[in-house]
Amino acid sequence: MDTIASLFSFITTPVSWVIVQFHTVYGKIFGPDTGWAWGLSIVSLVILIRICLIPLFVKQIKATRAMQTLQPEMKKIQERYKNDKQRQSEEMMKLYKETGTNPLSSCLPILAQSPFFFALYHVLDGIASGDKIGVINDQLLESARNAHIFGAPLAAKFTNSAAEVQALGASLTDVRVVTAVMIVLMSASQFFTQRQLMTKNVDTSVKTPFMQQQKMLMYVFPVMFAVFGINFPVGVLVYWLTTNVWTMGQQMYVIHNNPTPGSKAQAAYLERLHKHVTHHGKTRRRSEKTIIKAIVAKGRDRNEAERKFINGLTKAGLAAQADGSVVKSDAQTVVETEDGTTTTSAAAKRQQPKRQTKSKRQSGGPKAAGETISLSKSDEPEDAKPSGAAQPAAPKAGSTGRSKAQSGQRKGGPQRPKSPSKK
């Protein structure tokens, strides 16, 4: 163990130093030998590491978004080479290379945490075996060995024997109950985090190998934590439970404020954004402008939720701009009602003329509102007619609605002989 610790002292020494600094602060509040002082030191170490990993988390989100945009192309390759798995894999790798995406980018935060996890494991294992690692001296070593979290020593494991647990000043029952509860919580938080990603923040309209991979991880990771968790010291379980809770909360924030296009979370977000924008008449946050800008840039490639959002803005008299801002629509018109008040309408409705009855159409009655009445020659003013012109005979009453072609005759071609009964 000493050989391994010496080889990785470049990471175990900084980790032990950070834990000691936090322990100094919390020891003044809760006491230096309490489980709260050492437990909160580990929790603070997790928070510090995760804050430092935020840039990697942002890179992970961008990589996930890039994978989502490649979903249609990936589906085409999958359907085209469904009988040739090798060619399918080659085309997938070619697509990743051309677009600069990496499907393993989603594992970056976990890979980045691995050295810190390894260092913390050796520090706590050294405490359990009585070995000094890093900056932990004899006094700190004795203090950490006496620290208990809910009755379980910080360095105890689920697989420890009764004699080993008794040497740490605890009972085997307390250790196994505490470690079992923490393992269950650790696995459950990992499962819920992955399930939340699959059910809310994944474009379910396209089935790709990437989605199958994420679905598999949803069940594999919790099982891995449960199997390996029985060999972790209580302090390491505190570390992993804290980092899982942090990941779950961080992911909930991202899903709520920056969901994946085409997902259920995006539909819920755009519905909230529509209510907010129509209420205030503008966007108030930079993140809102970024999402609206991306939706406008898509044009006809918008999904159903995005089209519904744009149409909702149009009905409210608003228009989304290319820079992500929202302004009042120019198509909005003001219509004056009969009582003198004005109402706003997105587009002036075309008024349809009222349908006339058959008797009015045959008798040449008044035209419907909105129709143009044309003057015939007989309706021209007297002074507009040339002098000396013969006046045409006035049409007989009721002859206005009749056709020029007489009854029983055709307009063109040979005429049909009259019936003898009409002579």
Describe the protein in words.
The chain is mainly α. 58% of the residues lie in helices and 4% in strands. It is built from 16 helices and 6 strands. The protein has helices at residues 2-7, 9-30, 35-52, 54-69, 71-80, 85-99, 108-129, 138-146, 162-167, 172-200, 209-229, 234-257, 264-280, 286-298, 304-315, 358-363, and strands spanning 148-149, 152-153, 318-320, 326-328, 333-336, 342-345. The strands form 3 sheets. Strands 1-2 form a two-stranded antiparallel ribbon. A hairpin with a 5-residue loop joins strand 3 (318-320) and strand 4. Helix 13 (264-280) packs parallel to helix 15 (304-315). The termini are far apart. 26% of the residues are buried.
Q: Estimate the global geometry from the Cα principal axes.
A: elongated
Structural class: mainly alpha
How much beta, percentage-wise?
under 5%
The helix/strand series, from N terminus to C terminus, equals HHHHHHHHEEHHHHHHHEEEEH
Q: What's the alpha carbon Rg, rounded to whole Å?
A: 40 Å
Provide the helix percentage: 55-70%
Largest sheet: 2 strands, antiparallel
Number of helices: 16
In whole angstroms, the N-to-C terminal distance is: 130 Å
Layout of secondary structure:
Elements: H1 2-7, H2 9-30, H3 35-52, H4 54-69, H5 71-80, H6 85-99, H7 108-129, H8 138-146, E1 148-149, E2 152-153, H9 162-167, H10 172-200, H11 209-229, H12 234-257, H13 264-280, H14 286-298, H15 304-315, E3 318-320, E4 326-328, E5 333-336, E6 342-345, H16 358-363
Antiparallel strand pairs: 1-2, 3-4, 5-6
Helix pairs in contact: 2-3, 2-7, 3-12, 5-6, 7-12, 10-11, 10-12, 13-15
